[in-house]
Amino acid sequence: MVLKSNxxxxxxxxxxxxxxxxxxxxxxxxxxTDTSWKLAYEAFTSFDGSNEHIIIQNVRLPRSLIGxxxxxxxxxxxxxxxxxxxxxxxxxxxxxxxxxxxxxLVIGVSIFYVDSLQAFTWIAFAGAAFTAFVVYFIGSFGRxxxxxxxxxxxxxxxxxxxxxxxxxxxxxxxxxLDQVLFWLAGSVQGRKLESLHTILPYVIPALxxxxxxxxxxxxxxxxxAVAKGLGQRTGFVKILAALIIIVLGGGxxxxxxxxSFIGIVIPHFARFLVGHDHRWIIPYSAVLGGxxxxxxxxxxxxxxxxxEVPVGVMxxxxxxxxxxxxxxxxxxQK
Length: 334
Fold this sequence. Notes:
Elements: H1 6-29, H2 37-45, H3 51-85, H4 97-110, H5 117-140, H6 148-172, H7 174-184, H8 193-212, H9 214-220, H10 224-229, H11 234-256, H12 262-274, H13 278-300, H14 311-330
Helix pairs in contact: 1-3, 1-13, 2-3, 3-8, 3-11, 3-12, 3-13, 4-5, 4-6, 4-7, 4-11, 5-6, 5-11, 8-11, 8-13, 9-13, 12-13, 13-14
């Protein structure tokens, strides 16, 4: 733990929020079209209909806001999953929740021709919930009951299954392929503020409730018996946390597609900074997750300019080495 006192943790959180805000402003001006801080300011104070002002308002502002919200959702969902399962690799992408939500959305687009943003959100929630239930059931099967390794294997199997089924659907429906291919790579490019407005009524309460119940998560991580001995209704806490994970993971996929590694990497970095108290881990994860996705989106604009790399590719490049390190350390490999 780097930040040991509450004063340092508060200061660190303030610095993180300032960093996120600076990155979000940076997202408004950095890209293929040459803009500046002055142009960004004028785009909101004296809009003149120029190409630069349109790009800042209608393209870069939604990307900045969506990146911050989606990154926060994925990171907090990962932090809760790691706490509930005591699994250092737990995250919406590793456990197949993102893939399941994505598969359900592809079914909606390719078979039922869904085009409503509200419908996308509820379909993503349904896919996330279904996948979470199946992974939990498979991971609990057998004499040993639920174990971190079995959960990870079950999640990886479901992620692979849904990825294969998704590809199969797209092969037989080329029109749907055009609509969802870039989205499936994980991207905030081309997203509208309307898509963010659709999920905010769900993810904002979920984020707030996750912070309120942080102390109960701390008690639960001490062990089932200890938590019950302290009077906690562990079943209620687990169900509420699972619902929050489904809302955050499904909402993120509905807007930006399946984006990997943020849910794994950020909670570990937050624990490195503030220790194992979820009253600090959850807000730090939200801020740092948003910052990581925003900076990954900025970098994605410059890799193969004038084209762009999907932000999901950038987060995979950033997160893969950390994932390997966590996997080796988490399961005791030398």
